[in-house]
Write a structure and sequence with these properties.
globular
């Protein structure tokens, strides 16, 4: 029956069926063939899967991100980043990473991060003489930081799937997100050092200008600090923080930067609803799958198998990262979380791995999947901005992925580096 379940879902995926439909149909067929469960459980479990307070944060954070993106913030963030690191060797590459890190604290979405920052920086890098294959992959890697630094839609789903505090997961993502950003900036510097004058900035650092650009960008970049300190201080939950983010985004976009008007709000609402509905429909369908494999005791069987053949936590973490890396190459991250968490989380718990440590590893690893062909969501967005094909940029993927893997190794085996932050949220 389990073989029928996985083969059925794989078949629907191979013939191009939408992910949500494939998951739902494959599981429903398996339930019918099993004969031990009434079919009425399918709509009941779908409703139960969506009857969750944390899920409400997803459309709210998406709307807040769209408000800040189209409200003029992306340009202000790029100018802020350029003022602080634009004097370094490989200056525009450094700006690309730093701006993406800042924008990650606002949008919570990798593709939004890549599109917003890339649309501004890719033309500038082309004009400066950068190799656009390098620029494409670097922007894809920088955009992948979006789901790591809070607020993170990926973290919301991980918290929902593992029944873990979203606020504490948010706190866990701060230092790993910075680590990924620093690793990409180090690679950018090394790459620039081997290239010609196109990668060397002639503009000296001006502290006065940097402070001025910071002041201009401050209304926008203040959003993640409000959310984080609000959660830490117990003022609101992560889901309530999403509502605060929308209100703050409306005020900044409409009255501070004045880049949008009230007439733009219906369009932005529809855009946010379209993106959020995709995730929510996948979540509903995947919840049936998660419930069915739990009912058939697949996680328990996997725990027994692991305990038989893998005898140490160190080896399990290696296995976990390999599995997640491979899955990230072929599966969309939201689907991967909903499908894999019920299987892998009990195994991780059996090895004494905390939900926060586990959730952070999953988030960082799947973020790397955004850059990894053949799926590579941010890679497709970035290549769309530069006009480069995936085949052209593949050789430049390896050093970017390697840089991000260094950060992943630190996150995996040195959890004490960031696990103290969640203790601030009680």
């Amino acid at each position: 029956m389990i073989a029928t379940l996985f083969l059925g879902i794989l078949f629907f995926f191979l013939i191009g069926t939408p992910i949500a439909v494939g998951l739902g149909l494959g599981t429903t067929i398996s339930i019918i063939l099993d004969g031990n469960f009434p079919l009425v459980l399918v709509p009941q479990r779908m409703f139960t899967g969506l009857d969750s307070w944390p899920i409400m944060a997803i459309p709210l954070f998406m709307f807040a991100g769209n408000l800040m993106d189209e409200g003029g913030l992306s340009q202000k963030i790029v100018e802020f980043a350029e003022a602080w690191v634009g004097w370094l060797k490989g200056s525009l590459a450094m700006v690309c990473v730093l701006a993406s890190m800042v924008f990650a604290g606002i949008s919570g979405s990798s593709t939004a991060d890549t599109a917003a920052v890339g649309a501004i920086l890719m033309p500038a890098m082309r004009e400066k003489g950068y190799d656009m294959r390098f620029a494409s992959v670097l922007q894809a890697g920088a955009g992948a930081i979006g789901p790591i630094i809070p607020p993170s839609i990926l973290m919301v789903l991980i918290g929902y799937s593992t029944n873990t505090s979203v606020g504490q997961l948010f706190m866990c993502g701060i230092i790993p997100g910075i680590l990924v950003g620093v690793s990409l900036m180090v690679y950018s510097y090394i790459h620039a050092s081997r290239r010609g004058s196109a990668y060397v900035s002639t503009a000296p650092f001006d502290f006065k200008t940097a402070m001025k650009k910071t002041w201009i960008a401050l209304p926008g970049i203040g959003l993640p600090f409000i959310i984080i300190f609000g959660i830490v201080g117990g003022v609101f939950t992560a889901t309530e923080g999403a509502g605060i983010a929308v209100l703050y985004g409306l005020i900044v976009a409409l009255f501070v930067y004045k880049e949008i008007t009230v007439k733009d709000l219906p369009r932005l609402l529809l855009k946010s609803a379209e993106s959020a509905s995709m995730i929510i429909i996948i979540t509903a369908a995947a919840y049936i799958f998660s419930w069915f494999i739990t009912a058939r005791q697949i996680p328990q069987l996997l725990v027994t198998f692991m305990n038989t053949y893998i005898h140490s936590r160190f080896l399990f973490l290696i296995f976990l990262n390999i599995i997640l890396f491979i899955i990230g190459m072929f599966m969309e991250s939201f689907t991967a979380i909903i499908v894999l968490m019920p299987i892998l989380f009990p195994v991780a718990a059996s090895f004494g791995i905390s939900p926060l440590h586990f959730g952070t590893i999953v988030c960082v690893n799947l973020a790397i999947g955004y850059v990894t062909p053949p799926y590579g969501a941010t890679l497709f967005v970035s290549c769309g901005l530069t006009g480069k094909s995936i085949k052209e940029v593949v050789p430049f993927c390896f050093p970017v992925i390697a840089s991000m893997l260094v950060a992943l190794i630190i996150v995996t085996y040195f959890p004490g580096l960031y696990m103290w932050l969640p203790n601030l949220v009680k």
